[in-house]
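Reviewer comment 2.1 asked that we show a complete input and output for one of the modelled complexes. We chose the flavin-adenine dinucleotide case, as it is the one discussed in the main text.
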Amino acid sequence: MNYLNLKKNIYLSNFTTWKIGGPAEWISEPTNTDEIKSLINWANNKEICCNIIGAGSNLLINDKGLKGLSLCMRKFKGATINKSSGIIEAYGGETLPNLARKAASAGLHGLEWAIGIPGTIGGAVVMNAGAQGNAISDYLESIQTLTLKGELRTLKAIDLDYSYRSSLLQEEKLIVLSARLKLKTGGEKAEIHRITNEHLNHRLTTQPYKAHTCGSVFRNPEPFKAAQLIEDLGLKGFRCGGAEISKIHSNFIINANKASSSDVQELINLIQKKVIDSYGILLKTEVKICGF
Ligand SMILES: Cc1cc2nc3c(=O)[nH]c(=O)nc-3n(C[C@H](O)[C@H](O)[C@H](O)COP(=O)(O)OP(=O)(O)OC[C@H]3O[C@@H](n4cnc5c(N)ncnc54)[C@H](O)[C@@H]3O)c2cc1C
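Response of the prediction step:
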């Protein structure tokens, strides 16, 4: 069993960008497909559930922790890039900022917007991560997945029912082992790096980028912006315990001072109540809430 690198009762706050989350009953950080297959087998034999964690940049995990096996994908990294075809094949734990930089260095256009999203490609294809009118589904050709029964399955992007921050992968739990993207070729490297840096600088000035957050907490209820609705209610800087609505971007909740998962949950509930009472709009969470 030790070859699976399984550990017990490790705090998941070490695995989320909010720095919140209680102990995982079991946790492992696989580095290749065979290890992932063996871990799924092990969990199935023990009849325990499996939680998949990418970079934990979109997860609110209960302080009580998670039962079963937490499969943390952040060490399952690597990508190959074909400059002439624009095809990138990336393992599930490769990060978006890394891919954006690698694409720019190869002269490939398309991922400039992804530089400031601190998630993995696995998390991005599940969440349909995006920014400035782009989304990962615009560039995705296919993914290779492992079912929770341990079967390999290749799926085309067109079959994943993509829309704003939504995909079929949020309904059916599959492990994203790798993603195949197609970017635009023939770009000027210096120009792609310049645009990429511009995207990063924009974030640094408009978001609490260095704080412990999970990015935007709520989906935008088209045609409105969640941040604007929250700001118009005068909620910037409002706190529940150690959790605070960012003064820089109202759709971000900061872990300002040892926030508990219930501090954040309470703040989410409060925002939802105030927005529905004032505008009749239910703000749906973009962050995934686990173990409540
Ligand atoms: C500062 C900051 C800025 C952000 N800006 C943006 C933004 O501009 N746009 C945007 O869309 N998001 C943004 N986010 C949110 C987040 O980074 C994205 O949603 C990202 O795609 C989540 O990836 P992750 O690897 O962290 O996934 P996690 O948060 O770890 O997981 C999210 C979901 O994906 C599943 N998952 C993760 N990896 C896999 C895998 N390999 N196989 C199967 N399921 C998997 C998890 O089970 C979970 O359901 C931001 C977050 C932060 C902290």
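The chain has three domains: 2-72, 79-206, 226-290. We note this here for comparison with the apo prediction described in Section 3.2.
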